[in-house]
Design a protein that fits this description.
Elements (H helix, E strand, L loop, with lengths): L7 H4 L8 H11 L6 H17 L16 H28 L3 H27 L4 H12 L6 H12 L15 H26 L10 H47 L26 H6 L6 H6 L23 H8 L2 H19 L7 H4 L4
Helix pairs in contact: 2-3, 2-4, 2-5, 3-5, 4-5, 4-6, 4-9, 5-6, 5-9, 6-9, 7-8, 8-9, 9-12
Amino acid sequence: MPAEFASLRAALPFWLSVGLLPLALLAITQGGWWVILIPAYAWALTSLLDVLLGHDTHNPDPETEDEDLFWYRAITLIWLPLQALVIYGGIWWASRAGYSWPELLGLFFGIGVMSGSIGIVYAHELMHQADRMERWLADLLLALVLYSHFRSEHLLVHHTHVGTPRDAVTARYNEGFHRFFLRVLRSCPASAWQAETARQNRAGRSVWHLSNPFWRYTALQALALVLAYAIGGWLGVFLFAFQAFVAIWQLELTNYIEHYGLTRERLANGKFEPVRPHHSWNAPHRASNWLLINLQRHSDHHYKPDRRFPLLQTYGEDEAPLLPIGYPALGVLAMVPPLWRRRMNPRVRAWRKRHYPAISDWMPYNIGQH
């Protein structure tokens, strides 16, 4: 086993998410101001650590075998029961504790931050793997946030059409997050269904065939809601749905950041150029990459989607555009579109000048009609 992957100690920084569990326990059982602990940890503390710990530009050996990555993979494999315990344990306690509505909403906002910034990120890692068990874990994690179609949309649409008008989650230049979020919520379930329909047609099967994963998605999400009702009644269903919405918001905030304003050129033959490293924003910030299991090494993920997160490579600014700060802090900035545009639009314009100096009219790209 390569020395850099030899022990739990080597992998431990990527277990930063486990620090959320005692904070969740305090928030659930104490209420009051304790409910801010989870977002404070995921956003403020991680961003502060980014400043203190700086960048990590080390590239591990990408040929490292899966068996050498046991302690890295383990955190993604054990997260499902931990997250389910926090969500359903939170519903059980909160539905009996007599908390005020601000406390309930604050608590399940925090739980949603955990479900979105950790649970969906781990589901994203797992859904890209060939192992059947890992894909099932991804489906179960996505069912806990009522966003199961994300697997189909991400694998069949986003990775194929990133940087083109057919990819709804490639945020357009000058498009504010709030408008982007509404567009994605409206477009992505339909595009995921269409992609699965096309796949069934290619196999000579009806869209209603049991092999269509939408049957599984529906059953798992229904089961998740039934369990919430069994534990907490209609209040439990509401709290479960609220944390799911917050988690979805967290996911789409990340999607917004990852490709904002970065488009693939349409060639003379009408096709789009291949996906390159410069079609994704990257952030080498150490602590946020620990929390998000290297999601910020996003260019390499698009180059090699099934590459395990410890092996993802980082790129220099001459190859791929770099973000000024990590995802957690940048996500806060994205919630205020004027501040976001002030920080990011000059970077997009510099990217265009660097990689596409021959393009003079960017309007079709700006409005998604190129």
